[in-house]
Design a protein that fits this description.
Blueprint (H helix, E strand, L loop, with lengths): L2 H8 L26 E7 L2 E7 L8 H19 L7 H7 L6 E2 L2 H16 L9 H6 L14 H8 L7 E5 L2 E5 L9 H18 L5 E5 L2 E5 L9 E5 L12 E6 L6 E4 L8 E4 L2 E4 L8
Antiparallel strand pairs: 1-2, 2-6, 3-5, 4-5, 6-7, 7-10, 8-9, 11-12
Helix pairs in contact: 1-7, 2-7
């Protein structure tokens, strides 16, 4: 994962749903320069979009679309918690505490997650899944009452980054307890962005913007030298998701040549319980 991708990850909570609204990809004001070449689609339970200033000689849009889809599909096969056949899903349901073989990419992203967990003293924790489910942010089933102290204590027994180990040769994961589960959602999208960006660079693309689920990485500039600009959404807590406004635009061009940005907030993923607002950012250390 790139340094910019790591900075993305460090800004996110263990189960954060990043949301940076790319409302201003075309910048502000009139722009007579040619429009970027664009494509997008569905991935990782959200959407993705790519914009390229110009196609390199001999490279087609179709080839870049195929490369993009290939990388994002690979991330899903490796790190999805929704695909029961993904590496991570199969590791999570395994009752064994032996080493479980995974791809080098899954091992690398897990190792990064553990590094961030240690640096944040457990505020970020890739094993937080049982607590996410208990509060109703896993499968979407909202609890009718707040989890009891006993239920929280039971979930916390299998939560903790010290209960997860990773190795690289050969790449594998190991859990200390059978109930430990790993969720890389907070950084897998950023990892996917980096992989797509690397494929674009390998194809000779120098000016681009890649976005997956609100995590953005840009390089170079638009035609005419205008910067790639994204709009950070105003955090309006609206359960319908219809009230949206741009708080400010952020330019992602200049030095360094490649820049990234991600946000996470509690103004989209929340619900009311017993007169209180329950948000999706959960402290793994307390439950």
């Amino acid at each position: 994962m790139s340094a910019s991708g790591r900075r993305n990850a460090e800004a996110l909570q263990g189960l954060g749903v990043p949301f940076l609204l790319a409302l201003a990809l075309c910048g502000c004001g009139a722009d007579p320069a040619p429009a970027p070449v664009r494509w997008g689609g569905q991935t990782m339970g959200t959407t993705y979009s790519v914009a390229v200033t110009a196609l390199p000689e001999g490279v087609t849009k179709e080839a870049l679309v195929a490369a993009t889809e290939e990388e994002l599909a690979a991330v899903n096969r490796q790190m999805s918690t929704w695909d029961p056949d993904s590496e991570l899903s199969r590791f999570n349901v395994a009752n064994s505490t032996d080493w479980f073989p995974v791809s080098p990419a899954t091992a690398a992203v897990t190792a990064l997650a553990l590094e961030i967990a240690a640096e944040s003293d457990g505020a970020f924790d890739p094993t937080v899944g049982p607590l996410v489910d208990l509060w109703g942010f896993g499968d979407g089933t909202r609890p009718v009452q707040a989890p009891s102290d006993e239920a929280l204590a039971a979930a916390r027994e299998v939560v903790g980054f010290d209960k997860l180990a990773v190795r690289f040769d050969p790449p594998a994961l190991r859990k200390a307890l059978p109930g430990v589960r790993v969720n890389l959602s907070a950084i897998a999208k950023g990892h996917g962005v980096d992989r797509v960006a690397e494929r674009l660079v390998a194809a000779g693309v120098t000016d681009f913007l890649v976005e997956v689920g609100g995590e953005v990485r840009a390089a170079g500039a638009k035609a005419g030298g205008a910067p790639w600009t994204v709009g950070v959404e105003t955090p309006i807590r609206d359960p319908t998701g219809r009230r949206r406004a741009v708080q400010r635009g952020v330019a992602l061009s200049g030095d360094p040549a490649s820049r990234a940005l991600a946000t996470s907030g509690n103004y989209r993923n929340f619900y009311e319980l017993d007169g209180e607002t329950v948000v999706h950012t959960i402290d793994p250390r307390t439950g």
